[in-house]
Specification:
Elements (H helix, E strand, L loop, with lengths): L1 H32 L5 H9 L3 H10 L6 H11 L2 H9 L10 H6 L3 H9 L8 H29 L10 H16 L4 H17 L4 H19 L6
Helix pairs in contact: 1-3, 1-8, 2-8, 3-4, 5-7, 7-8, 10-11
Length: about 230
């Protein structure tokens, strides 16, 4: 069953492998352009494992040391993971020794696969979640390593590399809209985020919009008797 489960998880993560490989290489090249050798993007990918945050911190490393600014910026950017975690509480229940790895490796793409995939009867649920999480983790770290190495071997300046995360989020959003039967969540999230951006500005709109969305989705969940997805 483990072989069947791993094969199923690998097939599900193939699109992520292509995307993460490109993004990881881009991140490694970006770090090299900022003056860091391949060890920096590799170690940051292994320990932080937050693509958008890693791009931001890479730029902050070239500025004056300000740990509190980095802390709050990382908290704001990754505040969306609060919503992911709440959604995965029931699915990760009973995962045992796998749970710390599942929590650490919960990124946008892993959440999308583990939350939306309907598993056949012959697939072990907990191992599937673990394989998806670890495969996506490997894709990102290895891509960052390759990018750092390529950057040290190829002397080339590429502009606009930090836009790739924005493009990724757009693709994820469009894919989610296409998968949904009811567009309540995507429409609500888009409108709330847009309104908060105009009202509060681009610095703090993300945590505020996430907080509002959690309240709305909870109310919707209770209103529908716990059947809303």
């Amino acid at each position: 069953m483990k072989t069947r489960t791993f094969s199923f998880a690998f097939k599900k993560t193939l699109p992520i492998m292509l995307g993460f490989s490109f993004l990881g290489i881009t991140y490694g090249l970006y770090m090299h352009q900022l003056g860091f050798n391949f060890l920096y993007p590799t170690l940051m990918a292994m320990t932080i494992f937050g693509g958008s945050v890693e791009f931001i911190i890479a730029n902050l490393l070239t500025k004056a040391f300000n740990p509190w600014s980095v802390f709050f910026l990382a908290l704001i950017v990754n505040s969306r993971h609060i919503f992911y975690s709440i959604s995965m509480l029931e699915r990760y229940r009973g995962a045992g020794w796998r749970k710390p790895l599942l929590i650490f490796g919960l990124c946008d793409e892993t959440f999308s696969i583990n939350y939306a995939t309907e598993l056949p009867d012959d697939i072990d649920k907990d191992n599937f979640y673990l394989y998806v999480t670890m495969l996506n983790y490997f894709y990102w770290v290895f891509g960052a390593f390759l990018g750092g190495v390529f950057g040290s071997l190829i002397n080339v300046q590429l502009n606009g590399l930090d836009f790739v995360m924005t493009a990724l989020f757009i693709v994820i959003f469009v894919d989610q809209v296409l998968r949904e039967k009811d567009h309540f969540s995507s429409r609500t999230g888009f409108l709330i985020a847009l309104a908060c951006l105009f009202i509060f500005g681009d610095t703090i709109f993300l945590p505020i919009s996430m907080f509002i969305m959690i309240i709305i989705f909870y109310v919707q969940y209770r209103r529908t008797g716990g059947t809303a997805s």
